[in-house]
Design brief:
By secondary structure, the chain is mostly helical. Helices cover 73% and strands 0% of the residues. It has helices at 2-6, 12-33, 36-53, 65-78, 82-89, 100-115, 122-135, 137-141, 144-160, 162-169.
Amino acid sequence: ATDVLEQHTDVRTALEVLGMLHLTSAQCLLADRGQADTAFAHVAEAERLADRTGETTSWRLFFGPTNVKIWRVCLAVDAGEPGEAVDVAASVNPSVLPSTNRQSTYYMDFARALADMDGKRDDEALRMLLTAEKLAPSFIRSSTSAQSTARFLLDRSRRTSPLHGLCERMAIA
């Protein structure tokens, strides 16, 4: 599909679809094969295309620089690079996108990155999850990524709470 679309780059919507194909390829390469270098090469190509298209809404793909950065945040977390994900997320203004699902995805993935920062930023992670839920409640409540992050934060908060230690010593935990 990318070969065909590359022959029609004079059509604006072709660039948008081509960019989304690169992002989808990146996700598949990382998730299915663990090929981070190749995956991020696809993201770089999507960024190059997004620079040409600007922010778009064609076919509700919302392809453009903002959405590509949101994908980069997700992929960085999935690649085990939460610091990189936090750095990229800090440069994103998700309200540029007219899609509350894409905005909530940004906050959810930002929360995932913050939760992976050794417990130092759990309060921020929780705030990001709550913001994501406020934007798209049913989407976030049914998201396995959001559920996993919330469960992880809850478990860690219990383990680091002085109350948890007391309860263990009292054999009631």
